[in-house]
Design a protein that fits this description.
The protein has three helices and 22 strands. The protein is of the alpha+beta class and 369 residues long. Helix 2 runs antiparallel to helix 3. The chain starts with a helix and ends with a strand.
């Protein structure tokens, strides 16, 4: 029997449509076994990672407080030094001569004071004798006034010798001794010489940086934390730091600063972490990564196993009347096992917390025990 081609095509299309529809109805009517959970409050823990560059906790630029010529250089770049150690010295010959002269002047001032004291004591004794004689009428008014004038003069000379002359001599010695101390440039911290810009015989001027030092005992990891995470960090919090430059080693650190102001390039807040570097294996300029643990009490959270994502949108499946109902969410902080729900879900709502991954909106579901 010959069947027209057009009729045959019509029949095949009808048959396929019925077959596909039947298959679809069979799939949607099949119930899928799922595990369920209840959305609610949850303690959430996790780890925040902060990466950054290691910098010196302490650094210093040493400059001279005097103008002079370098006579002794005790350091070289890369050398470790202790606080108070003499790095270099300036020519002290002129200062030493000045000190000798000032000390000589001081001795003369002391001698002048001693001599003035002797004269004053003698004048006081003479006055005491004349005063007794004057009271008995044994000396004249004129003689008594003369001896009184001598006493006043001796007293004035003694006080003058005690005052400005002696003080000036002492101040001069102190100033020169201070300058002699300044001629030895000392390290202000325990550290390493990063650079030295002079050699013996060179002249230096006041205020010009000569030596730079950095401390490697403790370093600072400078990083940034996003605005969504910044409130989960605390100053004083302990952290672990790793670096690709020293693989297999974990360093201890402490958060010492969290900026109250975000950086201008985006919604990130600068963070400083003090890193213990007792064995000096870390170097300034290395990249490090800090793992910061946190734990919060979230008023509404869901298990991470309940979350799905499509085209950048997050959602879960509610269980309503035996059906899976796709429900979009706005999520917050993601922990190791749970994620904070900001909106889209109410407490005590029942959700699917496990596979199958091929579940669809409207599928019939059976809660497995």
């Amino acid at each position: 029997m010959n069947i027209p081609k057009k009729a045959l095509l019509t029949f095949l299309c009808f048959y396929l449509t019925v077959f596909i529809a039947g298959c679809g109805n069979s799939q949607s009517s099949e119930s899928k076994n799922v595990k369920s959970g209840i959305a609610g409050s949850q303690k959430i823990s996790g780890t925040i990672s902060v990466s950054g560059i290691l910098d010196a906790e302490q650094s210093a630029a040493v400059s001279s407080q005097l103008t002079g010529t370098v006579t002794t250089l005790n350091i070289k770049e890369g050398q470790a030094v202790r606080k108070g150690e003499v790095l270099l010295s300036l020519d002290k010959r002129d200062l030493s001569l000045q000190l000798q002269l000032a000390q000589s002047n001081y001795r003369k001032s002391v001698e002048a004071v001693n001599q003035a004291k002797i004269s004053y004591d003698d004048a006081q004794k003479a006055y005491n004798r004349y005063q007794e004689l004057y009271q008995t009428g044994s000396v004249s008014q004129q003689d008594y006034e003369q001896i009184t004038s001598k006493l006043n003069l001796a007293k004035s000379q003694y006080e003058t010798a005690q005052g400005s002359g002696l003080d000036a001599a002492q101040n001069s010695i102190q100033t020169i001794e201070n300058n002699l101390d300044k001629a030895d440039l000392k390290s202000p911290l325990d550290g390493v010489i990063a650079s030295c810009n002079v050699t013996p015989g060179e002249s230096v001027t006041t205020g010009t940086p000569i030596v730079s030092l950095v401390s490697e005992q403790n370093l600072i990891l400078n990083g940034n934390i996003s605005e969504s995470m910044v409130n989960y960090l605390k100053v004083g919090q302990k952290v672990d730091i790793i670096t690709d430059s020293v693989p297999g080693t974990t360093y201890s650190g402490t958060i010492i600063f969290i900026s109250p102001v975000s950086v201008s390039t985006g919604q990130f807040f600068p963070v400083k972490i003090k890193v213990e570097n007792a064995n000096h294996t870390l170097r300034i300029g290395m990249t490090g990564s800090a793992s910061i643990k946190y734990e919060i009490n979230a008023p509404l959270a869901v298990p991470n196993t309940s979350l799905f994502q499509q085209n950048g949108s997050d959602y879960v499946y509610l269980i309503k009347d035996g059906k899976a109902v796709r429900t979009p969410l706005k999520l917050g902080l993601a922990g190791d096992a749970y994620t904070v729900v900001i909106s889209g879900l109410n407490p005590e709502e029942q959700i699917i917390v496990s596979e199958p991954l091929n579940i669809l909106d409207g599928d019939s579901v059976t809660i497995s025990q």
